[in-house]
Amino acid sequence: AVIPDFESFCEQIRTIYLKTLKNKSGKVADYIPQLARVNPDQFAISVCTVDGQRFSIGDSGVNYCLQSSCKPINYCLALEELGADVVHNHVGREPSGQSFNELALNSRGLPHNPMINAGAMMSCSLIDRKNNIADRFDKVSKTWKALCGGKDVSFNNSVYLSERQTADRNFALAYFMREKNAFPENTNLTETLEFYFQCCSIESNAYDLSVAAATLANAGTNPLTGDTIFQSSTVQNCLSLMLSCGMYDFSGEFAFKIGLPAKSGVSGALMLVIPNLMGISIWSPRLDEVGNSVRGVEFCERLVEHFSFHQYDSL
Ligand code: GLN
């Protein structure tokens, strides 16, 4: 097994969980009522290793919406379909240093990277674009199901409707990109935006989502089913951008301190990937000023204090 003494590993994760649980700082996202109403005290950790060892603690069976943690997977889907050259004619791969919904594009008039809103809408415009919107959404949700080891994901329609109703900034970003000719020809803006909001509104729990994180840690092959969901080159590209851009405008700090690819979402979701070792799903709804889960970040900090998981710890 990849973690020989898994029991003592789990014991230490439990200790870190209990220490982190005490942190009640931060505020739940309140830009839509569906997120504002979530019980802020919830906290879940789920681990899945690349050979299928599993451990969960806390609210790991409670569903939450993916929000921005849908972005890496949409980027992977675009890469698988079109290859990196085509995808990166439409989206950059540089951290923006700005908030996830900043009205800003790079010097070529493209989104800075696929891990912020503008870039994620661009990924959505690229996925299965010849097909109708229902089949395109099916493709995304079937991919999440395969990543989670065959467990169906849910869809939170109220979150979707709220997102769509309060989407002025995202519409502004999309029009800005259209003005710069950033989208592929004949892109339907409204459809693309709605597709993006739908992806953000997919729901699952930490237990199942840890398998998705483990699939990325395992180079695209699901450790439970053995199914290859993404090519390793796709996952490599995705993890590179999660490392440099996955934690909003805290990404540089996170790469420095934690040294691992991760992606957060305003629901309090955090997907952490330890390449060749394990995926960890963390969920706790209270957010810091940039929009990352407070406990999520603290858990990661404590984790690398305990274990040599920082990618340069081996030096
Ligand atoms: N639905 C949110 C938005 O598009 C998701 C952003 C996020 O998780 N940071 O604004």
Automatic annotation (TrEMBL):
<comment type="subunit">
    <text>Homotetramer.</text>
</comment>
<keyword id="KW-0677">Repeat</keyword>
<comment type="similarity">
    <text>Belongs to the glutaminase family.</text>
</comment>
<dbReference type="GO" id="GO:0006537">
    <property type="term" value="P:glutamate biosynthetic process"/>
</dbReference>
<dbReference type="GO" id="GO:0006543">
    <property type="term" value="P:L-glutamine catabolic process"/>
</dbReference>
<feature type="binding site">
    <location>
        <position position="196"/>
    </location>
    <ligand>
        <name>substrate</name>
    </ligand>
</feature>
<feature type="binding site">
    <location>
        <position position="117"/>
    </location>
    <ligand>
        <name>substrate</name>
    </ligand>
</feature>
<feature type="binding site">
    <location>
        <position position="163"/>
    </location>
    <ligand>
        <name>substrate</name>
    </ligand>
</feature>
<feature type="binding site">
    <location>
        <position position="68"/>
    </location>
    <ligand>
        <name>substrate</name>
    </ligand>
</feature>
<keyword id="KW-0378">Hydrolase</keyword>
<dbReference type="GO" id="GO:0004359">
    <property type="term" value="F:glutaminase activity"/>
</dbReference>
<feature type="binding site">
    <location>
        <position position="170"/>
    </location>
    <ligand>
        <name>substrate</name>
    </ligand>
</feature>
<keyword id="KW-0007">Acetylation</keyword>
<feature type="binding site">
    <location>
        <position position="266"/>
    </location>
    <ligand>
        <name>substrate</name>
    </ligand>
</feature>
<feature type="binding site">
    <location>
        <position position="248"/>
    </location>
    <ligand>
        <name>substrate</name>
    </ligand>
</feature>
<keyword id="KW-0040">ANK repeat</keyword>
<protein>
    <recommendedName>
        <fullName>Glutaminase</fullName>
        <ecNumber>3.5.1.2</ecNumber>
    </recommendedName>
</protein>
